[in-house]
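Comment on the following before class.
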Amino acid sequence: MSSTGVSNKIKSFMNDGSWIRKMFEDGIVLKQKYGDQNVFDLSLGNPILEPPAEFFSELRKIADLPIKGMHRYMPNNGYVETRLSVASELKNETGFDFTPDQILMTCGAGGGLNVVMKTLLDRDDEVIIFSPYFVEYIFYADNHGAKCKTVNTDNKFYPNVEDLESKISAKTKIVMINSPNNPTGVVYNYDILSKISKIIRQKENQYATKIFLVSDEPYRKILFDQVIYPNIFQFHPRTIVVTSHSKDLGLPGERIGFVAINPNCECKDELMDGLTFCNRILGFVNAPAIMQHIVKHLQSVTIDISDYQNKRDFLFGKLTEIGYSIVKPEGAFYMFPSSPIDDDMKFVSELRENRVLAVPGSGFGSPGHFRIAYCVDMTTLENSIPAFKAAFETFH
C-alpha cells in the first residue's frame, strides 16, 4: 500500500515520465543561481512565437461585439459553424468530402487522444507506437485499460515495417503515428505510410479485426524545405486524425483542437456518436467556447514557419560542426541528436553542468539520444553553442 495515498501505479508513471518535468524544475534552480540569461533551457516544447495577428483581430472582435449566449453550453461535439469551417479546410487540403459530422472539437490534442482511446479501446487491447515516442501515449492508453507495444525505427527514425508486422496481434486496435514527429522532427513520407497501411490491411484480414490508424498531428503545418506530409486519409479507411492549434497558431495554453474521422470510414456515424459521448463523460464536456468562435476564422492561418526553420538551420549547422550526429528535422521544432556517449542520461547531466537543459532519449524510449526543443529565442540558441561544444569535448 502506498504510504502517501498516491497509487503505486501513478507513482511509477510519475517516475517514468518525469524527465521533462525534472529538467523544468532544474531550470528554475539554475536560473535562480546563475540568472535567466545564463541558463539555456531547451527542454520544453513550449512555443515562443506569439499567435498571428489574425488571432488578435478575431479576439478583439469577439470582445467588442460579444455573441449573445456565447458562454453557454453547446453540443458536446462543438459549434456546427466551427466544425463546418474545419471540415471545409480539410476538404480543400485533402480532396475528401468532409462535413461537420466527421469533426469533433476537443480540449487540445491530448484531450482528443484520450477521447479517441476511450471510444475505441476495450481492456487489454493494444496500441502500437513507434520509438522514439511521446511518452504520454503510454499513460493515455493505460487510462483506458489498454497497453502499448513499441515498434522500432531505423537510423533515420522511419518505422521498421518488419517489426510492425511482427508486433500487430489480434488484440491490436490502434496503430498510432506522429508526423512531424516529437521528438525527432522526422516526417513520414508517402512510401512509409503506404507500407504501414498495407500491413494494417493484411493483419485485419489475418485476424478478422478492425484496426484504426490514429494520426497525432499537432505539428502538421510546421514543415520545412517544401516537405509535404501526405494526406493520411488516403491510406486507410479507418483513419482518425487528432490535432490542435497549440503549435500552428501558438495557442498551447488555450487547449483547442479537433478530431477528424475519415469520411470513407464505414462506421463513421457510430464512431462520431461514441467520440461525442466520451468527450462528455471524460469531463471535457466541450471544447472552450471562445476559442471555437475564434479558430473558425483561422483554419488557413499559421504562425511564421520560417522562424522555426531558421532556428533549425542555425542549430543543426552549429551542432554538426562541433561533431554531433543528427538526423535533420523536416518539421516541428525538435532535434534529436545522438549522444556522444552511450549513456544519454550521463551526457544530459554533463550538459546541465554547462547550464544547457535537454531531455534524455531514454524518456522517449530511445536511449543514446537527447531531445532539444528550439522553440526559444535565437539569443538562447546562440549562447548555448559554447556549452554544447564544452560538453561534447568532455568525452572526446
Notes: The CA atoms of residues 36 and 384 lie 13 Å apart.
